[in-house]
Design brief:
This protein is an alpha/beta fold. The protein has helices at about 5-15, 60-70, 85-95, 140-150, 170-185, 210-215, 225-240, 280-290, 295-310, 320-330; strands at about 20-25, 25-40, 45-60, 75-80, 80, 105, 115-120, 125-130, 155-160, 185-190, 205, 240-245, 250-255, 260-265. The strands form three sheets. It has an eight-stranded mixed beta sheet with strand order 4-1-9-10-11-12-13-14, sandwiched between helices. The chain has a four-stranded mixed beta sheet with strand order 3-2-7-8. The chain has a two-stranded parallel sheet with strand order 5-6. Helix 5 links the parallel strand 9 and strand 10. Helix 8 (about 280-290) packs antiparallel against helix 9 (about 295-310).
Length: about 325
């Protein structure tokens, strides 16, 4: 890459600060219980975990919002949580990261999605989930749509972050995309396979290879040639402006739908891959912020690839800072 191109990318990173962006989707709380094991329970053949610490982290669309806030974005979160302690902890943690939560709806009929992981001696012993995955009822859906109508007027980009917990459904997906198109705001989608074909007329979708194949009902491929053919099919089926398929250590491939499908593939820029947890959240966060800052789709994809290379070099669900991203652009 030319130095002028690298300078352009670094300039875009510096322009992330205070860009107004919206994340609309399923938020959840990741609850970690850590401890040690020294004996087996006399009640059943299971380990007794002596709890030493607990941590609560935003997950799902909450982690996407956290990624964008860490990069300097002015982030508004639209979602639904339960009227429960988990919801309070989740909103408190998100708010402390500088994310606007006033438009997150509290509903006593749905529990806050909570994933509790018990970890002993660096080994996950068990995970248990509290959640409701049925689609939002008409009243809740309309409240979310009204909230988006009020927030989108000043937004530079929107992310629809679908984790299949019911916030994004037929009604809210269609309404959100129509609002983005009406206001000329780029809309980027991290899809759930079950909703894959519902995301029509969008700016960009960011599935991984497995999601792209399963979303179109075809066998998962390891062939770049087959993937490129599939990308063109997805663009046509969704009438999407672009598609960014992430390929793990293989990098990512961008498809643009102009007069013809233009394909750009870039390999991973990670020096060493430790953990891919949360890399997809980072990719779509950087992509949307880049578009809000005035990047082309190719520039946004390149920045997303650099950011993914940073976070997969960290252990656990990680975020990237503007300084780390700028340093990665060499």
């Amino acid at each position: 890459m030319k130095n002028t191109d690298k300078n352009r990318l670094k300039t875009l990173v510096s322009q992330f600060k205070n860009r107004k962006v919206i994340v609309f989707g399923d938020i959840m709380i990741d609850h970690f219980v850590r401890g040690s094991v020294s004996r087996i329970s006399p009640e059943a053949p299971v380990p007794v975990v002596h709890v030493r610490e607990e941590a609560y982290l935003p997950g799902g669309a909450g982690n996407v919002a956290a990624n964008m806030a860490r990069l300097g974005g002015d982030v508004t979160l639209l979602s639904v949580v339960g009227n429960d302690i988990a919801g309070e902890k989740l909103l408190d943690g998100i708010g402390r990261r500088g994310i606007h939560t006033a438009l997150v709806v509290r509903d006593g009929r749905r529990p806050t999605t909570e994933k509790v992981r018990v970890i002993a001696e660096h080994q996950q012993v068990v995970r248990f989930d509290r959640e409701a995955t049925d689609p939002l009822g008409p009243e809740l859906a309309q409240e979310c749509i009204r909230n988006m109508e009020s927030a989108i007027k000043n937004a530079g980009a929107v992310i629809l972050s679908d984790y299949g917990k019911g916030v994004l459904n037929d009604t809210t997906i269609e309404a959100a995309i129509k609002l983005c198109r009406r206001h000329g705001v780029p809309v980027c989608v991290d899809p759930k396979v079950g909703h894959f074909k519902k995301y029509r007329n969008i700016t960009c979708m960011t599935p991984n290879t497995k999601e792209a194949c399963e979303g179109m009902g075809v066998p998962v491929t390891g062939s770049q040639k087959e993937l490129e053919a599939l990308g063109g099919t997805i663009l046509e089926a969704l009438n999407a402006q672009s598609l960014l398929i992430t390929q793990g250590a293989g990098g990512m491939t961008l498809f643009e739908n102009g007069n013809q499908v233009e394909i750009s593939h870039t390999g991973t820029v990670a020096r060493e891959v430790y953990d891919v947890t949360g890399a997809g959240d980072t990719v779509i966060s950087v992509l949307a912020l880049s578009l809000a800052a005035g990047a082309t789709l190719k520039e946004a994809a390149m920045l997303s690839n650099y950011a993914a290379g940073v976070v997969v070099g960290k252990l656990g669900t990680a975020t990237v800072t503007p300084e780390e991203l700028a340093r990665a652009i060499r």
